[in-house]
Design goal:
Elements lengths: L1 H4 L3 H5 L8 H21 L3 H5 L8 H25 L1 H4 L5 H27 L2 H8 L31 H4 L11 E5 L2 H12 L5 E3 L14 H10 L3 H32 L6 H4 L7 H8 L3 H7 L10 H5 L6 H26 L3 H50 L3 E5 H6 L1 H7 L3 E4 L7 H7 L6 E4 L13 H7 L5 H7 L9 E2 L4 H4 L10 E2 L16 E5 L5 E2 L6 E2 L1 H16 L7 E5 L2 H14 L5 E4 L8 E7 L15 H8 L2 E9 L1 H7 L1 H13 L2 E2 L15 H4 L11 H12 L1
Parallel strand pairs: 1-3, 1-4, 2-3, 4-5, 6-7, 8-14, 8-15, 11-12, 11-13, 13-14
Antiparallel strand pairs: 9-10
Helix pairs in contact: 3-5, 3-7, 5-7, 7-8, 11-18, 12-18, 14-17, 18-20, 25-26, 25-31, 28-29
């Protein structure tokens, strides 16, 4: 994708791709040889141009030369792009090795073309051809993993790599790469990382919280495209919108008329018109009657003593009887009586039967109009949707990377299918149901990349029985690993300081700390960056909630949070996690009572994929039966222990946890060896000069002055105790 985007203007301006297939090279060489033979047979320029050794040579050879020199420039531009710090940090990598392999195959094809020309051309032309530069000027020292002697032969297939397998899938003319994530937050983070080296990114969906992606949102791109749209395109869209508006108004009117005619009320004469057999003076007179006048003509008093049901119970009047009734009314009207005589000429019982007949005809016409209006609206809406999808498709096809959530992929399934993406990347793949992954694949999919951690949270299933008995919560990612599908494990972590990451050694025995994690600042006022505050205080269950809570842990974490905020940490830099919703409610109430606002409070499950400087964890469970519940699930333990960057502090009944979980036993063994557990939290008291500057603490939105002095002192005393 980086090569296709082109950081160099010279590379971006060329329409011909850097990498061609071997078949195209051989075909080009064959054409050049035929052209050279044709020139030699003509005898006009071949030998003459070669005499003296300084001639221009055959035209066919010049075409080969110019073609080679142009490609050499293209390769150099692409090489500069791949070696740029934005793409590879200036270090040779798999992409560069792939490029070198392709250059070697290209050189082989170019030599074939020159050899074919040399066999037919003159000695002078051969001399000129020998002086033509080929692609060997590319410095092989830039590609240490693909030396000249190690390059595969022409007929040999090189070992597959990520770059090699992506050849032809991520070029400038290829469909974009589709990036799918389980959550909007993860999608924003993933696309922000891609923006560092590829600006052609489009994010689909309106729930992005990233300012960096605002101008890359599909809705924003469509808005800009609409402003820049040509006049003819605006006219077309305007006509479609106008037609849709008219269809909507027609549908609304048809729905209202259908509601009136099929309702239980009396119909006015205006709604009864339209029946073919109903004509003449009687029809003209009845059309002017409102509902009150129609009730009087039918003999229904305003008080409603004679119910409308008695009228509707009468049989309908047939077409022949209706025509006879109209003829009689016409004779009465034309004899001098006028419209009043026409209406009075119909007997009362016939009036009821005529009304029922006219009412049934009105209902049929209203129903037919509603169906026609609905179909017209559907066609207009489909036309508008087709135009909008065409606009969106034009924007998405111009991108190198298109990102959306798995929910968005289902919502915009038509767009996804039409994009025909060949490469699909799934972030958080271990947390996505297998059905969601399969539903995102299409017939054009050539490569599927799954990124995730099956040792953290699994997918959540709405049906517990399917999850329990049929493995619905086993993701495609985890199932592939269980069936020995090849994978690459990332071993270096860049989030946690080493004292925190060591807690995860039972889960990730091969985990390596990046050098940047060793210089993280210490937590102000506390002696250890990671500590377990142990207790034996029992949990309890509120009457209105099944979820348990632990008041002692609420009190401890409130005091610790007050101490940290008083030390200068911004509340937004502190996250408080709970294993249960009931405890989360109690924590919110406790922090509100202490006046601590702005802290990040969440359950462990909802915080997967997030991180913060300081994390306070409440595991809640403490009972005489040794029931651990969610806290015994290894995946949740992994998430809970791996969210903090600078400091991690956990309030729990560690003795009970170790008795019911093997993983907790291993964690407790490390905690005991490191001496980072106890009933009280050791403090590191010092002067103000030892405190890190505010830039290392984050934006200090609260200070010691924001916290009541007596509450801060009380919190410190409790911690010291």
């Amino acid at each position: 994708a980086a090569a296709g985007g082109g950081a160099s203007p010279a590379a971006a301006s060329r329409k011909r791709a850097v990498v061609d297939s071997d078949e195209e090279e051989e075909e080009s060489g064959g054409r050049a040889a035929k052209a050279a033979r044709k020139e030699q047979d003509g005898g006009s320029s071949g030998p003459a141009a070669g005499e003296g050794g300084g001639g221009a040579g055959p035209p066919a050879l010049h075409r080969v030369e110019s073609r080679m020199l142009s490609r050499e420039e293209e390769v150099e531009a692409t090489r500069e792009t791949l070696l740029s710090p934005k793409v590879s940090g200036g270090r040779p990598d798999g992409v560069q090795s792939w490029l070198h392999h392709r250059l070697a195959r290209r050189r082989s094809a170019e030599r074939k073309a020159r050899a074919a020309v040399a066999d037919e051309a003159t000695a002078g032309a051969v001399s000129d051809a020998a002086s033509v530069s080929d692609l060997s000027e590319v410095n092989l020292s830039d590609y240490p993993d693909a030396e000249e002697g190690e390059l595969p032969d022409e007929g040999e297939v090189a070992p597959p790599s990520v770059a090699e397998s992506a050849e032809g899938l991520c070029g400038s003319d290829s469909p974009p790469i589709l990036v799918l994530c389980h959550t909007n937050h993860a999608l924003d983070q993933f696309l922000e990382g891609i923006l560092a080296f590829e600006p052609r990114v489009v994010r689909v969906g309106g729930r992005s919280q990233s300012e960096a992606l605002k101008e890359h949102n599909l809705a924003e791109r469509l808005r800009v495209r609409k402003e820049e749209r040509a006049g003819s395109r605006k006219t077309l869209l305007g006509n479609v919108h106008a037609h849709l508006k008219g269809s909507r108004e027609r549908l609304s009117a048809a729905a209202k008329q259908s509601h009136r005619t099929w309702g239980g009320g009396l119909l006015s004469g205006l709604l009864l018109r339209g029946q073919r057999s109903f004509r003449g003076a009687l029809a003209a007179a009845l059309e002017r009657l409102p509902e009150e006048g129609m009730a009087a003509w039918l003999g229904l008093p305003p008080a409603g003593e004679a119910s409308l049901e008695s009228v509707l119970a009468q049989p309908q009047m047939g077409p022949a009887a209706t025509e006879a009734c109209c003829d009689e009314a016409d004779r009465a009207a034309y004899s001098g009586g006028g419209p009043a005589a026409a209406m009075e000429s119909v007997p009362l019982v016939d009036r009821w039967a005529l009304y029922n007949s006219l009412r049934a005809g009105a209902q049929t016409r209203a129903q037919a109009e509603l169906v026609a209006a609905l179909e017209s609206y559907r066609l207009a809406a489909a036309a508008e949707q087709a135009l909008e999808e065409a606009e969106a498709l034009a924007v998405l096809r111009g991108a190198a990377v298109v990102g959306m959530t798995t929910t968005g992929a289902a919502k915009y399934q038509t767009l996804v299918r039409q994009l025909e993406c060949r490469v699909i990347v799934f972030e958080e793949a271990a947390e996505v149901l297998e059905a969601h992954v399969l539903a995102s694949l299409g017939k054009s999919t050539a490569q599927l990349l799954l990124i995730g951690d099956h040792q953290q949270l699994r997918p959540s299933a709405a049906c517990h029985e399917l999850a329990l008995h049929y493995g619905l919560t086993v993701s495609l990612f985890e199932r592939a690993l269980n069936n020995n599908v090849p994978y690459v494990r990332l071993r270096t972590q860049r989030r946690m300081r080493p004292q925190i990451s060591r807690l995860l050694s039972p889960i990730y025995p091969e985990l390596i700390d990046h050098p940047s994690t060793f210089n993280r600042p210490a937590v102000v006022g506390l002696a250890h960056p990671a500590y377990f505050l142990t207790h034996q205080s029992p949990e309890r269950t509120r009457g209105d909630l099944i979820s348990p809570e632990n008041p002692h842990e609420v009190e401890v974490l409130c005091c610790l949070a007050a101490l940290l905020v008083g030390s200068g940490y911004a509340p937004a830099k502190i996250t408080v996690l709970s294993a249960y919703v009931g405890q989360l409610i109690a924590l919110r109430a406790g922090f509100a009572a202490c006046g601590l606002d702005g802290l990040v409070l969440s359950t462990v499950d909802a915080y997967q994929g997030e991180e913060n400087d300081i994390v306070l964890l409440s595991l809640v469970r403490s009972n005489s039966d040794g029931r651990l519940g969610f806290t015994a699930v290894d995946n949740r333990i992994c998430v809970a222990l791996s969210r903090a960057r600078l400091g991690f502090y956990c309030a729990c009944n560690l003795e009970m946890l170790t008795a019911g979980s093997e993983l907790w036993r291993q964690v407790a063994r490390h905690v005991a060896d490191a001496g980072v557990s106890g009933a009280g939290l050791p403090l590191a008291l010092g002067d103000a000069s030892a405190m890190p500057p505010p830039s290392r603490l984050g934006s200090v939105e609260s200070s010691a002055a924001d916290v009541a002095p007596e509450r801060l002192a009380s919190g410190s005393e409790r911690m010291l105790a």
